[in-house]
């Protein structure tokens, strides 16, 4: 009986897996039709190679979505909300890997994003840039990294089953003979009484809070440095590709308007995070110093 209980408990805690995993083109970009299907095929192949089960390529995924009543996944135009709804159409535990390919000059901009039908946030996402004549080799490592992230997040952890603790043992009745005998202590003749000596030592204050706050300050400082570097990189890309047009607007010969807008938003967000983390690091460092001195 105990073995059956353990088996049932083990099975109840075995993680479930999200499936199927459908790969689909979720956009139709100008001048990218010759490359987008090949990228989607490559993504499906790498997912299978990395051990992801029940992977469905773009052709089969599009067919199943049409059978469910959706006309064409490419009409999503790379939108997150639309792509997330496609995962729901594939099944209650399905995952949709959206493939968005754009051609900018002689380069390809590839955006991959995985959506789970049972989650509100994406499982994984990655942006890849590669030359159009060498995209297969230049994107291989990034697509493989993305496939491994998807595989790691396919498991669905079930809630743990609470196990009631065993009942306490019955109380043991004490027999009269088991009662403890209180010893009688009498002073010896001629013996002097010694006063009780009690040594009281105050414990040293703990430095754990100070160490914890100092560690948090260091982590905040590292975060500020990382996001400051990312913001600087975006700024360099902005200065290189975005120029002021004669009519006073911003434009780019290498980036689309959407990419210019996304670059500006990302640069501002990273700069804000870097500033907030830097301020937080300074405040935490002051608190840690005060705790160490105290």
Detailed description of the structure:
It is a single chain. This protein has 294 residues and is an alpha/beta fold. 46% of the residues lie in helices and 15% in strands. It contains 8 helices and 9 strands. It has a 5-stranded mixed beta sheet, with helices on both faces. The protein has a two-stranded antiparallel sheet with strand order 1-7. Strands 8-9 form a two-stranded antiparallel ribbon. Helix 7 packs antiparallel against helix 8. It is flat and about 110 Å long. The relative contact order is 0.10. The N terminus is likely disordered.
Layout: helices, strands, pairs:
Layout: H1 2-12, E1 16-17, E2 21-25, H2 36-49, E3 55-56, H3 58-67, H4 80-90, E4 95-104, E5 107-116, E6 124-131, H5 135-138, H6 140-152, E7 155-156, H7 208-241, E8 242-244, E9 250-252, H8 257-293
Parallel strand pairs: 2-3, 2-4
Antiparallel strand pairs: 1-7, 4-5, 5-6, 8-9
Helix pairs in contact: 7-8
Structural class: alpha/beta
Helix percentage? 40-55%
* Fraction of residues in β-strands: 15-25%
Strand arrangement in the largest pleated sheet? 3-2-4-5-6
Order of helices and strands: HEEHEHHEEEHHEHEEH
Shape: flat
Mean pLDDT: 82
Please count the helical segments.
Answer: 8
Radius of gyration: 32 Å
Distance between the termini: 59 Å
Give a count of the beta strands, DSSP E runs of length 2 or more: 9
Low-confidence stretches: 1-14
What does the largest sheet look like?
5 strands, mixed
């Amino acid at each position: 009986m105990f073995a059956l209980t353990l088996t049932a408990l083990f099975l109840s805690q075995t993680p479930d897996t999200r499936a199927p995993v459908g790969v689909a083109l979720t956009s139709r970009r100008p001048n990218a039709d010759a490359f987008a299907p090949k990228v989607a095929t490559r993504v499906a192949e790498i997912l299978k190679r990395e051990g992801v089960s029940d992977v469905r390529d773009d052709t089969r995924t599009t067919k199943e979505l049409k059978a469910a009543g959706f006309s064409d996944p490419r009409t999503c135009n790379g939108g997150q909300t639309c792509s997330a709804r496609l995962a729901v159409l594939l099944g209650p535990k399905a995952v949709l890997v959206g493939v968005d390919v754009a051609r900018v000059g002689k380069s390809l901009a590839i955006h991959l994003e995985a959506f789970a039908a049972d989650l509100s946030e994406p499982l994984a996402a990655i942006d890849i840039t590669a030359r159009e004549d060498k995209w297969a080799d230049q994107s291989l490592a990034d697509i493989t990294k993305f496939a491994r992230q998807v595989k790691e997040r396919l498991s669905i952890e079930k809630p743990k089953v609470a196990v009631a603790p065993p009942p306490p043992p019955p109380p043991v009745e004490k027999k009269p003979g088991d009662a403890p005998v209180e010893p009688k202590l009498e002073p010896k003749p001629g013996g002097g009484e010694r006063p009780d000596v009690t040594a009281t030592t105050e414990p040293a204050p703990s430095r754990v809070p100070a160490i914890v706050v100092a560690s948090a300050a260091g982590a905040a400082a590292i975060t500020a440095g990382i996001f400051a570097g990312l913001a600087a990189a975006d700024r360099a890309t902005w200065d290189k590709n975005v120029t002021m047009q004669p009519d006073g607007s911003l434009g780019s010969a290498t980036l689309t308007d959407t990419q210019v807008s996304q670059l500006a938003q990302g640069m501002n967000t990273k700069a804000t995070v870097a500033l907030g983390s830097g301020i937080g690091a300074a405040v935490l460092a002051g608190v840690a110093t005060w705790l160490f001195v105290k």
